[in-house]
Design brief:
The chain is an all-alpha fold. The protein has twelve helices and two strands, in the order αααααααββααααα. The protein folds into two domains: about 65-170; about 185-335. Helix content is about 75%, strand content about 0%.
Length: about 350
Amino acid sequence: MPDNRQRIFQWVEAGLIDENNLAQALEMTNSQPDQQQWLKFIQLGLLWLAVGSFGCALIFFFAYNWQDMPRLAKFSLVELVICLSAIVYVRHSGHKMINTALLMAMTVFTGALLALVGQTYQTGADPWQLFALWALFMLPWSLIGRSSILWIFNILLSNLALFLYLDVNQGMLGILWSSVDVFWIIFAFNISLLIVFELQHIYRIVTQLQHSDNLSSASNRYPQQLLAIMALWSISFVAFESLWEGAFRLEFLAYIFALSSVLVIYRYLIRDLFMLTLGCLSFIFVSSVFILSTLSFDETGLFLLTGLNIVVCSALTGKWLKSLALNFRAHSMANKPADSQKTGPEDEQ
């Protein structure tokens, strides 16, 4: 089915189509989801529901029979489930939706196996080691599956392991970490992963352009956006600490450089409205902290000025982002192949 939805919405925003006639326009151009697309959506939901139910059933089975099952039976059962999932994955290697669900199931069962090892033998390992090993062991499946769901789960596990490590270990090589140093480490970790993901994204675009004049419909960018959230959150806190202490230190200059890089890269090199929105939110937060920490008005005037800054910045950035959204949409429609089809649920994984 031709993808006319975005074009029709653009015409409505431009005033070429009355909003009251939007439903009729979508129906006349066959832009509403058809029966096949609804079937794919229902299949996807049932598939993930089945995977989640099976995982919960296995966990509750262990919890109920923990005292009665020997150690070998516990390990054998989990390893058998992982092997069966791998066999089904190989047999359905051409079906992306099933493959992603199976890889996710194998990931969950791997975590259960690691937890079982720690619970059975009482190794005394710190919790961060469990999540770090879990993220490490699922890395090959993330590379094989190339699914945003797997990458998001891997990123969350990696950040959780890093948080727990920094909470347990207050320093390294005799150097104690301050609260700012902790956020610097989180920023460096996430920004490094973000650079790797974006380089891969640029490589994919260049490869497509070498074989075609048009770009195919891109997959979602949820992993990159999650990494950007973590990176901007941590660097914004670093800037907050720098401003609150009343000194323009290198931390604040680093924040300015990071924010400028986000605005330039995702405005001109990689068009991503979500990243620009994150940058605007971070700017509003830090600028408000700057007013509160620098100016010496009375409390009423200070909070009034801060509120005015939030309102004005929100209005200006909202207007700018709306104009960019129209610009990005027009650019996307111009570069879309004429025979492009609507992206289904399976392609959004």
